[in-house]
Amino acid sequence: MTFSVLRTVDAWWVRTPAGAARIDTAATTTRELLADRAAIAAAAESTDIVAVESLSLVSPVTAPCRVVAQMTNFASHVKDSGMDPETVPLTFFRKTSGSISGPDDDVVRPAHVRLLDYEVEIGLVFGREMPVGSVIGAESLTDYIAGLVVTNDISARDVQLPKTQFYEAKSYPTFTPVGPALVLLDADELKRFTDLRLRLWVNGEVRQDMTVADMIYRPVQTLRELTRFQRMDAGDLLLTGTPIGTAISAPPKAVQFIANLLPPSVKWKMFFQGQAKNPKYLKDGDVVEAAIGTDDGAIDLGRQRTVVRYAR
Description:
Helix content: 10-25%
Shape: globular
Number of domains: 2
Number of strands: 19
CATH superfamily of the largest domain: Fumarylacetoacetase-like, C-terminal domain
CATH class of the largest domain: Alpha Beta
Structural class: alpha+beta
């Protein structure tokens, strides 16, 4: 049975058809809450309900925790980045959990960043420890993955690309909006993972719209690779990649060939001069909305709404 868990600053809640019921728990972290499943189930049966709209929601994934992410994991995004989906490797990077923010919090662009991008992604939330060397199979996936969340992997492209690393460019505070809900799924529900559709809008304009059918490396294969070197614990978060539609796009092959003949400083100067003309990068006051769910509504991770603010 699906449970949609919400969080406010001082409490945990379960979403019900009538609203939200408070969970009677002493848990202060996601890890602690996931160990108190009986309290979650009991709250789902409660008749003491408040309107969800009356709650000021924060991220249902608490920090500190591990935040691991997959690179270029949708075929459409790989092609748009100028690569071949048949040969792209399964690759990971880390983000700081200090980048986690709530589903309605502002996204704050640091003053030195110029090219701010978005990436709607499904977040997998671990429900138990996954030590290095764990045996992962389709039948045991729900032993490790407790539920799913909407995430937005905000990226400072003008920091990421010249430095050829992701950690700084994706780890500034507010660069990982999470929520609104942590949706706990059972094994049968998780089988519908490929039916999930990821969508993102900027100022009401659809920028990303794709189902998981476009995903290259899916959770079982991902966890098998990850457990070769990385331990994960209950409450940790794994981002699984984004589809086509981000602001950044690879230049034509001919332009790439010529650029590769130039010194790096000249190449990047030319590239960023061109990117500065791209209107899709996020601007001060832009409203970014992200939602994930199945088309029939059977699984709904909710919809987050964040506003971009430029630091002065």
